[in-house]
UniProtKB/TrEMBL annotation:
One Gene Ontology CC term in the entry: cytoplasm
Key words, A-Z: Oxidoreductase
Signal peptide: none
Source species, domain of life: Eukaryota
Recorded GO MF terms: glutathione dehydrogenase (ascorbate) activity; glutathione transferase activity
SUPFAM superfamilies tied to this protein: GST C-terminal domain-like, Thioredoxin-like
Occurrences of domain GST C-terminal (ranges): 99-237
Full protein name: Glutathione transferase
Residue stretches making up the GST N-terminal domain: 3-94
Biological classification of the source: Eukaryota, Fungi, Dikarya, Basidiomycota, Agaricomycotina
Length: 237
């Protein structure tokens, strides 16, 4: 019998989504507890994560209610740390290659995604940089150049934590472009969506569609819930 694992997460959070994707893609038994980002329960900071970060997990210890986590369980936070832990703790889930070079490629892709795509994407949504739209498109080109020619997966021939890590960005990019959600000037989301249909982004978009159309991705991502949350968080003044 495997150790208990409880994921404390928020459906609105891309960082939470990547962990849930990995757990579900790896068929890893776990409990899920939804945490309101702006109204976290008192027990969460006291017994799960002292700084209140979401997502977080408890691992091991007795199988108890998520609302009363055991002091005997390990507590981990930071989404990418959790992803690596899951891949190491559940090798049978095949979320990381066994070859050291391929494992390094997975880590490199995750780091490149975080450092290259994360900053301009959020700057664009927040409208905090007048050149954010141009920087976002350049970042997308960088990510595209990291992808294999056929781009079914980020690294190798199977799904890894690299794919789980980037998929939440894809979901939110589609919300931005489909619904024009963001503090950016009205119409910027629609325009970026149209630009991404150009042949120069074909590999990126093929990979994006392959990831968001996976059955688990469709189960985990609730477009209505996330769109409503992002409209509230990134409402235009």
């Amino acid at each position: 019998m495997s150790a208990q694992l409880t994921l404390y997460a928020s459906k609105a959070s891309p960082f939470s989504e990547k962990v849930e994707l990995a757990l579900r893609e790896g068929n890893i038994p776990h409990k899920y507890f939804e945490v309101e980002l702006f109204n976290k329960p008192a027990f969460f900071a006291d017994k799960v994560n002292l700084v209140g970060k979401v997502p977080a997990i408890t691992y091991g210890g007795p199988d108890v209610s998520p609302e009363d986590p055991s002091p005997l369980s390990a507590k981990l936070a930071e989404s990418n740390v959790i992803l690596e832990f899951i891949a190491d703790a559940y090798p049978e889930a095949n979320l990381m290659p066994t070859d050291p070079i391929e494992r390094a490629k997975v880590r490199f892709f995750i780091d490149a995604t975080n450092t290259t795509l994360n900053t301009p994407a959020f700057a664009w949504v927040r409208n905090s940089d007048p050149d954010a739209e141009e920087k976002l498109l350049k970042a997308i080109e960088v990510v595209q150049n990291l992808l294999p020619e056929n781009a079914k997966f980020a690294v190798g021939d199977s799904y890894t934590i690299a794919d789980a890590c980037i998929t939440p960005y894809f979901h939110r990019l589609l919300i931005n472009t489909k619904h024009d959600v963001g503090r950016f000037p009205e119409g910027s989301g629609t325009r970026v969506g149209e630009l991404l249909e150009a042949p120069k982004y074909a590999r990126f978009m093929a990979y994006l569609r392959a990831m968001v159309n996976r059955p688990v991705a469709k189960e985990v991502f609730n477009e209505e819930t996330v769109t409503a949350a992002w409209r509230k968080i990134f409402a235009r003044s």
